[in-house]
Design brief:
With 426 residues, the protein is α+β, with helices and mostly antiparallel strands. Helix 7 packs across helix 8. It has helices at 18-30, 52-65, 96-103, 141-156, 169-176, 179-197, 223-234, 238-250, 267-270, 291-307, 316-327, 399-414, and strands at 2-6, 12-14, 39-45, 71-72, 80-82, 86-93, 116-123, 126-135, 213-220, 253-261, 278-286, 335-339, 358-362, 372-378, 383-390. Helix 3 links the parallel strand 6 and strand 7 (116-123). 39% of the residues are buried. The protein is globular.
């Protein structure tokens, strides 16, 4: 193990960003579920012939450049504190699996620990890759990818400066407390209230059974090319096509789907390594019509939701309670779709490409407040639809059919318009 030492860097403290606050809000709700770590890991290849000292220097520069990697959240997480000095251990492991296991053994102690853990995987005493385990309080998926790009560049060009002009999280928090930003946040909550008032009611007995979670994973080489083809025809994005497919598969009627907003609205925010992603609430109406019509309506509501996706996350639960009291029923917000696909899209299927989809059961975890959680990930050749579902909403025996129905709907739509029907759903 190598211990990296830091000193003489900027120290700062300030309020939390909105992105940090929603992560803390989620952590507070899920603290009892120790099988859900809420961390993000990334793998960074090391250029052949690179010495361990060069790798450690690159990691050192990375931590110097991005203050989020030197930030703690003490005192009940009322503020963020950027340390100008400290140490970081770089572990050495023999395999990627070992590195991931070692780094994720314990949850991050956000009050005392920086939000980064590092291991170098070597073969024949030569570094092959760097494994990063990152606290979600330090990064979201976008920011984690920025770190991968930056560390890759530092490994290729060790002479790069340790300074950066990128905005830092404590500075982002300052912009979010400006009067114009606060006004936009109030407008966003007003929009969320409007959506909640029109949301379908939570069905009786919808509280999830803590022992009835199942995780199914469908790996498909055809669904993403098909989703992109439908998106091009409908002048939208593949993310919206997936949302529309979820709504159609859930069945006829009105749904409010929770999705994750990218939430970076300026070039400075796009380059900032910090969590920005927040929940947005997308209403989708499904009736006996074409899939293209559902996609178009989803796109319209998705854009409106994205424009209103910056708000105080602590205000949402009181807002839900207020709306529940006003209308007499609790709005159903139990479905979350998280699009984690990388920027490089899978290749389109060809006559020689394997196109068979494969389903497998995964290791389930628990997500309080939800009954279904769909994550979309890709590996360069295929997209995996991972559905975590509670038995009160979707019995185990019906989970594979749900995912196959989604895939089939998107693939059929890519070949021409389809009528979605008005079935009873899942």
């Amino acid at each position: 193990m190598t211990l990296l030492t830091f000193d003489g860097l900027r120290t700062a403290r300030g309020p939390l960003t909105l992105g940090q606050r929603i992560v803390l809000e989620s952590l507070s709700q899920r603290s009892a579920d120790t099988d859900y770590t809420y961390n993000i890991d990334r793998l960074v290849p090391v250029p052949p012939g690179t010495d361990l000292d060069v790798v450690c220097d690159a990691v050192h520069a990375l931590v110097c450049r991005h203050e989020t990697l030197r930030t703690r959240f003490p005192g009940g997480a009322r503020e963020q504190v950027v340390d100008g000095a400290g140490t970081l251990a770089v572990r050495e492991c023999g395999s990627i699996a070992e590195a991931r296991s070692v780094l994720a053994t314990e949850p991050f102690d956000v009050a005392t620990e920086w939000g980064i853990r590092v291991a170098v995987v070597s073969r024949r005493d030569r570094p092959r890759s760097v494994v990063l385990c990152l606290s979600h309080l330090a990064v979201d998926a976008w920011a984690a990818n920025l770190l991968v790009d930056d560390l890759s560049a530092l490994l290729r060009a060790p002479e790069r400066t340790r300074a950066t002009t990128a905005r830092q999280p404590v500075d982002q928090a300052g912009t979010e407390t400006a009067p114009d930003s606060l006004a936009r946040q109030a407008d966003a909550l007003a929009h969320v209230r409007e959506v909640l008032l029109a949301a379908p009611a939570e069905p009786p007995g919808a509280t999830s059974d803590p022992d009835a979670w199942q995780l199914g994973e469908l790996r498909s080489g055809v669904v993403d090319p098909a989703a992109r083809a439908v998106a091009a025809r409908c002048r939208t994005t593949a993310a919206v096509v997936y949302l529309a497919a979820v709504a159609v598969t859930l069945g006829a009627g009105r749904h409010v789907l929770k999705a994750i907003s990218h939430n970076r609205m300026t070039p400075a925010e796009t380059a900032c390594v910090a969590p920005f992603a927040m929940d947005m609430f997308v209403p989708v109406e499904v009736s006996g019509e074409t899939f293209e019509a559902v996609v178009a309506r989803t796109w319209e509501n998705y854009r409106r939701a994205a424009r209103h996706s910056r708000y105080d996350p602590a205000a949402v639960r009181p807002l839900v309670a207020e709306v529940t009291a006003d209308r007499g029923t609790r709005p159903d917000l139990s479905v979350l779709v998280n699009d984690l696909r990388a920027s490089a899209r899978p290749r389109a299927a060809t006559a020689t490409s394997p196109v068979a989809s494969t389903f497998r059961w995964g290791e389930p975890f628990r997500l309080p407040g939800l009954t279904r959680y769909l994550a979309l990930t890709d590996d360069g050749d295929a997209v995996t639809l991972s559905l975590l579902a509670n038995g009160v909403a979707l019995p185990r025996e019906r989970l594979p059919a749900f995912l196959h129905r989604m895939e089939g709907l998107i693939v059929a739509a890519a070949d021409g318009d389809t009528t979605v029907g008005a079935g009873s759903g899942w």
